[in-house]
Every structure is written in C-alpha cells, then in structure tokens.
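Bug #77: duplicate submission created two jobs. Keeping one. Sequence:
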Amino acid sequence: RPQSRGGLAHRVTRRIWPDSPPGTYTHDQNQNIEAMRAVDLSQVTKRSDAMAQLAEHLDDTTLQTFFTQSLDVKEQRWRLNLDVLDREMPKILDFPEVGTAYGGHTLFLSGATSDYVTHAYRPTIREKFPKARFAKITGAGHWLHAEKPREFVASVQAWLDLDGRA
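Kept job's structure:
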C-alpha cells in the first residue's frame, strides 16, 4: 500500500499475488486471445453481440463477460492489445527470478477451486516471500477477480487495511 510523506514519497508496504504460483506456467492463455480475435467487431453493436460470438469459442460465461469489459463497443475495438499479449505471453507466464527474498508482507490470494497455487508451492513461496500469508475465495477458480469481483475487492481491501499489522 503506498504511503505518502509530504505527498511525494511512496513506498510499498504489502503485496497481493492473485492466484499465481512462483514458477513458470505450463500452459498459456492464447486460446482466449484467439477467441477475442475471432469476434467480428463490425457486427458488434452491444456487448451481448460480442458475448454471443465469444460463446462459439469459450464455454465459460464468466470469461465472456470479463473479456467484453475490455471491449470498446462504440469504436468496435478491443482495449487490450491482443498482438502484444500474444507476443509477450512467455514473459507473462514466467515468474521472474530475483536474487533476494521479498521481506514485506505478501498475500497469496487464490480461488478455492483453482489449482494454480497448491500446497506444493508453499516452501518456494516461503523462501521467496518469508512473510507470505494465504487466503482463498470460496467459489472462485483462477479468474477470481472475474468470478467473484466483490469478494476479490473485499479481500484486497481487508489486506491493505491491515496497515502495519501482519
């Protein structure tokens, strides 16, 4: 949480790591990028038009809704740069190696039905983030911010409101 001194200086006092393990993913999200690319934006006059087209490629209505939040219907374009996301996917999926552990407070917030941050990662997480805490959002999978947005925001706010308390 940024704290200011005199309105100018900021520092991070705690972090949140939403449903991501400290390692390289063995899969990618390119199927979602391709689903968005497959939408004929010239035929979209409202979000439901795009959702109907996404449904031809994605079964998950939560993801359809989530992705269409990044759609500028009036301009008939995605606000996301799909080419950059596709090109940089290996970097997005990789956990950067750093020489030292992060000594600040870090919350690993996961979806209760997600298999991304498993107990098997705990030793690695504790090594890289000695002050790590773990929490799960009931009823959410990997896309916890899309599946349970209110619960996600409440969890983030509760974590940030801890201030100096662990």
